[in-house]
């Protein structure tokens, strides 16, 4: 699963990286190294004319049938992730999977080790692009490291209209069984989409479930990623800073891949 992730980029950086040309001005979300469910995040989706657009949604799908804000929040907190195996079947997700797919940009995400692998249960790891800079020295001197390319989670989004007419867009990350070295940390991982799948994934004219499912199938789903153990600071939602992603040394017999 994915219960926390990080994104530090500005809208202008995401607009350039994801080749967005709508020219829309968005509020700037603060850099966040400990994004929690229900918080506002950036998503990339196709607008009505099937052109790529950068938008803001809250993390966790709000069930369209929610009758009030309390029901909406409850449904949202339970739907931050959609399992790839059943996303086309679950009532909360199936319409969005066919008609409202998106990309969710991230610098990286956190996962906590389970008893399956060689690591102490609940040891947090930070998973990011393998070209992400080592921030250890940058933290010590108080400077900011050079930013790397974002990773793109496969996502879906939904729209809920509150009784007072307020429009709420929300989104969920599609997860899949973990593979390769990531499976030694946790049984689940986000579904990542490489750049050559973005156009097809966002294309709103594609509604065939089998065709959509095929987009998520990759020969090497964990390619281009690295995982490093990090301190337990990330466990508290009160902590937020780039230091949360700093790698730590694990004691014997625990070693990194």
What would the principal axes of the Cα set say about the shape? Answer: globular
**Largest beta-sheet characterization:** 7 strands, mixed
CATH topology: hypothetical protein yedk fold
Structural class: alpha+beta
Q: Helix count?
A: 6
CA-atom Rg in angstroms: 18 Å
CATH architectural type: Alpha-Beta Complex
- Written as H for each helix and E for each strand, in order along the chain, the element string is EHEEEHEHEEEHEEEHHE
What assembly state would you assign to the polypeptide chains in this entry? Answer: single chain
Poorly predicted tracts of residues: 139-143, 253-257
Q: Report helical residue fraction.
A: 10-25%
Number of domains: 1
Describe this structure in words.
The protein has a single domain, classed as hypothetical protein yedk fold (Alpha-Beta Complex). It is 16% helix and 28% strand. A hairpin with a 5-residue loop joins strand 3 (40-46) and strand 4. The chain is built from six helices and twelve strands. The protein has helices spanning 11-17, 69-77, 94-99, 136-141, 198-202, 209-215; strands spanning 4-7, 32-35, 40-46, 52-59, 81-83, 101-106, 108-112, 124-129, 151-161, 167-177, 188-190, 225-229. The model is unreliable at 139-143 and 253-257 (pLDDT under 50). It is of the alpha+beta class and 257 residues long. Strands 3, 4, 5, 6, 9, 10 and 11 form a seven-stranded mixed sheet that branches. Strands 2-1-7-8-12 form a five-stranded antiparallel sheet, with no helix packed on it.
